[in-house]
Design goal:
2 copies of one chain form a homodimer. In chain A, strands 1-3-2 form a 3-stranded antiparallel beta sheet. In chain A, helix 1 packs across helix 2, helix 2 packs across helix 4 and helix 5 packs antiparallel against helix 6. Chain A is 70% helix and 4% strand. Chain A folds into 3 domains: 80 residues, Orthogonal Bundle (Arc Repressor Mutant, subunit A); 51 residues; 34 residues, no CATH class. With 190 residues, chain A is mostly helical. Chains A and B meet through helix 1, helix 5, helix 6, helix 7 and helix 8 of A and helix 1, helix 5, helix 6, helix 7 and helix 8 of B. Chain A binds a DNA duplex (30 and 30 nucleotides) through helix 4.
Chain lengths: 190, 190
DNA sequence: CAGAAATTTCAGAAAATTCTGAAATCTACG
DNA sequence: CGTAGATTTCAGAATTTTCTGAAATTTCTG
């Protein structure tokens, strides 16, 4: 591997983090390399830059495509496949969220749904199902929120983030403001 | 393994998902077992229930403690260590978020910070640093939001989730409402 | 259609991880 | 203290994952 030191540091870091992120070292390194590259790269350039086998690159690119994390490009008058990452980091975030949900959350949700259909046979199972129902409920809340929020344009999403917990106060206050606006009398329990 | 079928299904599922979640099969199974159990369990009960070695249980419990996902309990007149998971699933979520951030995000943030301190030596490095700056900026936004929101009480957090993208409209509308409240004249750009 | 260029497949090697059994260590209590 | 019960450590076995090189396949071009 013969890369400028800052690029090398980033690539090696992504390789090391790969396993924590659910990908392997090579996949992480290739992704990092593509993310930093000003123009698309072909497989042989990755072999050269990362000092790994051609077949490893092929398999890793397939993996990155399964994650929708890379784009295949074709240059005019060149038969080779070139790859890039999407330019917009928000788009990358959306893809990552979607794919991780698909791999890490959805299977559990579906197992929980199936188990919760069963009739508990013992007090032990009854208690276990109650726990699973709690977990199922929480995951449902999170995924419903996610499905709702992921449709926002980036500017609004960014605004939501920047507000953070201030929104909480706004929400608590909103009822008051709105009711004032509508001149609806407040109830004790508001 | 001789468990009621619904419990067994859940435990096996957690074992299978373990590797995707950054833990291993045994750690996943033990966690699942503890989560469903109505009372704390000692190591030998886990050996019995999951049909694994005592040493494996010991190491896996250490791992779960490192994640802050289990609590150590002591029963009166019993020298053995008993373990449970926290009862509140929202608390579990908070722990999970904190620990995953620590393992999956913080190291990258710190590498990015370090690299961005360097002076780029070539146009290639200049471009790479610009990309890394984008990534750093996005992660910062996300972690700042997280640090802000994690301090909310659960009820408010749940409310925020249930509002989802509706909050976006509320935020966009808030300026209007508030300015009406304050009788501030609206500008064209509002 | 022949063949050159590019990519993919896959069996087995290499490496990393997980798990076990045996020994060592710790701890409470008589 | 001594010892019995409980837990931890750790070397090596078992398993899983990752990687390679060689062969097969696909795809474009003349």
């Amino acid at each position: 591997m013969n890369l400028p030191s800052t690029i090398q540091a980033f690539v090696l870091h992504f390789g090391e983090m790969g396993s924590r992120w659910g990908i392997n070292r090579t996949v992480g390194q290739i992704y990092a390399l593509l993310f930093l590259s000003p123009e698309p790269l072909c497989a042989d350039q990755m072999v050269e830059a990362l000092d790994i086998s051609r077949s490893n690159v092929s398999i890793s690119l397939r993996e990155l495509q399964a994650w929708n994390l890379v784009l295949l490009k074709h240059l005019p008058d060149d038969r080779r496949d070139f790859f890039t990452t999407p330019g917009d980091v928000w788009q990358i975030l959306r893809t990552l969220a979607e794919e991780r949900k698909k791999r890490e959350v959805d299977p559990t949700l579906s197992v929980l749904r199936a188990i919760l259909m069963e009739e508990p046979q013992t007090p032990q199972e009854r208690h276990a199902q109650a726990r699973m129902a709690e977990m199922h409920g929480l995951i449902k809340q999170l995924t419903t929120w996610y499905d709702d929020v992921k449709g926002l344009e980036t500017a609004r999403l960014a605004m939501l983030l920047s507000m953070g917990r201030k929104i909480s106060r706004l929400v608590e206050g909103a009822d008051k403001v709105v009711s004032l606006g509508r001149s609806r009398p407040r109830r004790e329990t508001d």
